[in-house]
């Protein structure tokens, strides 16, 4: 009986250590952030966990130096660079707790235990490079977008008419 009790105590201790490690990793992942600046220094973006934009700084000169569409492109590229930096921090955090042969980018993408033919959906996908491996994701086709836009437009028109 004492032998079984010792095994149970050991299992519970292992569980508690694993849970504490999980809590620690979760806290580290929640604190992940990335920052990037545009090459000309006019735009600085900060992203948090999951690549969520948390800060965007634009120099007053940015409006003079770039036309609106150019500035929008610089912002998008800068935010993407900040997100890539945050993703790398995420991968490093996960690498510490994953088995050596496991790709943390695949874990984050949800494809770690899938073969490429299992997550490639078909013609309505595109390849997105997340740094470590390309991942396929669904892309809405133009017809669906047009239907959504026309539905939205008619809703707005109906509200204005009332």
Automatic annotation (TrEMBL):
Query: What segments bear the compositional bias annotation Basic and acidic residues?
Result: 147-162
Record carries keyword Membrane: no
At the highest ranks, the source species' classification is:
Bacteria, Bacillati, Actinomycetota, Actinomycetes, Pseudonocardiales
Which organism's genome codes for this protein?
A: Lentzea cavernae
Q: Does the keyword Coiled coil apply?
A: yes
Q: Which residues cross the membrane?
A: none
One Pfam entry name:
YbaB_DNA_bd
Spell out the residue ranges making up region: Disordered.
125-162
Entries under SUPFAM superfamilies matching the protein = YbaB-like
Tell me the protein's name. Answer: Uncharacterized protein
Keywords of this protein's UniProt record, alphabetized?
A: Coiled coil
């Amino acid at each position: 009986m004492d032998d079984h009790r010792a095994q149970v105590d050991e299992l519970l201790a292992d569980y508690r250590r694993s849970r504490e490690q999980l809590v620690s990793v979760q806290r580290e992942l929640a604190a992940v952030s990335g920052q990037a600046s545009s090459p000309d220094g006019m735009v600085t973006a900060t992203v948090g966990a999951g690549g969520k934009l948390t800060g965007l700084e634009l120099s007053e000169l940015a409006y003079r130096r770039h036309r609106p569409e150019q500035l929008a492109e610089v912002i998008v590229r800068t935010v993407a660079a900040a997100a890539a930096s945050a993703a790398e921090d995420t991968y490093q955090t996960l690498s510490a707790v994953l088995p050596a042969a496991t790709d943390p980018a695949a874990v984050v993408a949800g494809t770690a235990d899938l073969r490429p033919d299992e997550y490639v959906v078909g013609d309505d996908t595109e390849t997105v490079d997340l740094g470590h491996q390309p991942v396929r994701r669904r892309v809405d086709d133009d017809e669906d977008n047009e239907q959504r836009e026309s539905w939205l437009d008619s809703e707005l028109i109906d509200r204005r008419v009332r």
